From TrEMBL:
It comes from the Bacteria. CDD domains: EcCS_like (cd06114). One of its GO terms (molecular function) is citrate synthase activity. It holds the Pfam family Citrate_synt. Belongs to the citrate synthase family. It comes from Jhaorihella thermophila. The active site is at H279, D337. Pathway: Carbohydrate metabolism; tricarboxylic acid cycle; isocitrate from oxaloacetate: step 1/2. This is Citrate synthase. Keywords: Transferase, Tricarboxylic acid cycle.
Length: 402
């Protein structure tokens, strides 16, 4: 058997592939994407089937352990996750150190990074039991961490998790309930929230997941690795696109201004891009966007929203961009973030919460990939090479002679 990894390192050559457009950084058995066919499979199961028939925690189990759970396995998994939804009470002081107007993503990077200061019994990456506890903790606590970042941001008291609720309902309640007031979670909105979580659960070696793997390759603890992933996700070319997309729709404002923005997106001298359009891997359609679009229609229907100006702009922009030869030629289609922003806006989330919600969803993907990497004894520290284009050797010149 040829060991491909050895072959590469012994060959004495390296590839120059900025943006890693055609370089595999690892092998994995978790997620498969066929960009031409618009296919996304988790452990072999198509995403549209999972979005329709399954739910987020079952998909978490699938990603983490490789197979769909039996009823008993699922019950056990759900109860383990439920047990860990609280965050350490002292972490509240950490939140209070941030400025009130801090972006929730800034708070999340800090709070998740600081978890290793609170949960010492799950930072030993060489201990499979500690790895398991860290995984469950991350999945369980992320909705609480994100909801508290939001509550802090809007100046409301924190709402504690309620463990008789399902994952999505619990998150909605922690975001929207005000203590001492009744808050009933609408089951259709909870289902839509669960779908958003499910559709973002994993996406193989995207930028944030690769960041988690790179951080983890040095042996960093899981909380530090996930904080690195959150930081990377924040960028507008990745998870920040959902916020950027909604802000763009608001800036467009009315359908008559769409041609002006489409013209800007096509102008090579203008850095502006249509946010929520295009994808590195999907070149025909994003299978998650199809399900998300259907979910958006359901939510808007339920809430009786069809005259929202932002949604009118979104629908018209989608239509005009898809009819434009520039977008067809470059295979630019609405991606998952184009529609998720519309749903979250309709649910009442401010745009600043869009990327934190993406981070909650993607946590299981990051953790599954981290576990896979850590359980491979042959994994190496990630250390890319570079193509040096700077000055050749030269001698130091004393400051008075420069
Ligand atoms: N609007 C206008 N033109 C675009 C867009 C866009 N949204 N996206 C790509 N293009 C053009 C580029 O200008 C480029 O044109 P050129 O060949 O004439 O130079 C061509 O399409 C290819 O673009 P690249 O940037 O090389 O494609 P890449 O695969 O590197 O980028 C990306 C993919 C980052 C998603 C890009 O399409 C983009 O910036 N989209 C907007 C941001 C966005 O929605 N990101 C979310 C991604 S999905 C996710 O994270 C869940």
């Amino acid at each position: 058997v040829i060991d491909i990894r050895k072959l590469y390192t012994q060959a004495g050559v390296f590839t120059y592939d900025p943006g890693f457009t055609s370089t595999a950084s690892c092998d994995s058995t978790i997620t498969y994407i066929d960009g031409e066919k618009g296919e996304l499979l988790h452990r072999g199961y198509p995403i549209d089937q999972l979005a329709e028939k399954s739910h987020y925690l079952e998909v978490c189990y699938l990603l983490l352990y490789g197979d769909l759970p039996t009823a008993a396995e699922l019950e056990d998994f759900e109860s383990r996750v439920t047990k860990h939804t609280m965050v350490h009470e002292q972490m509240q002081y950490f939140y209070r150190g941030f400025r009130r107007d801090a972006h929730p993503m800034a708070i999340m990077v800090g709070v998740v990074g600081a978890m290793s200061a609170f949960y010492h019994d799950s930072t030993d990456i060489n201990d499979p039991w500690q790895r398991e506890v860290a995984s469950i903790r991350m999945i369980a606590k992320m909705p609480t961490i994100a909801a508290w970042a939001y509550k802090y941001h809007i100046g409301q008291p924190f709402v504690y998790p309620r463990n008789d609720l399902d994952y999505a309902s619990n998150f909605l309640r922690m975001c929207f309930a005000v203590p001492a007031e009744d808050y009933e979670v609408n089951p259709i909105l909870a289902r839509a929230m669960d779908r958003i979580f499910t559709l973002h659960a994993d996406h193989e070696q995207n930028a944030s997941t690769s960041t988690v793997r790179l951080a983890s390759s040095s042996g960093a603890n899981p909380f530090a690795c996930i904080a690195a992933g959150i930081a990377c996700l924040w960028g507008p070319a990745h998870g920040g696109a959902n916020q950027a997309c909604l802000e763009m729709l608001k800036e467009i404002g009315t359908p008559d201004r769409i041609p002006e923005f489409i013209a800007r997106a096509k102008d090579k001298n203008d850095p502006f891009r249509l946010m929520g359009f295009g994808h590195r891997v999907y070149k025909n359609f994003d299978p998650r966007a199809k399900v998300m679009k259907q979910s958006a229609d359901e939510v808007l229907d339920l809430l009786g929203i069809d005259d929202n100006p932002i949604l009118q702009v979104a629908k018209e922009l989608e239509k005009q961009a898809l009819e434009d030869p520039y977008f067809a030629e470059k295979k630019l289609f609405p991606n998952v973030d184009f529609y998720s922003g519309i749903i979250l806006e309709a649910m009442g989330f401010p745009t600043s919460m869009f990327t934190p919600i993406f981070a909650v969803s993607r946590t299981v993907g990051w953790i599954s990939q981290w576990k896979e990497q850590q359980s491979d004894p042959a994994h190496k520290i990630g250390r890319p090479r570079q193509l040096y284009l700077g000055a050749t050797r030269r001698d130091y010149v004393d400051i008075e002679n420069r």
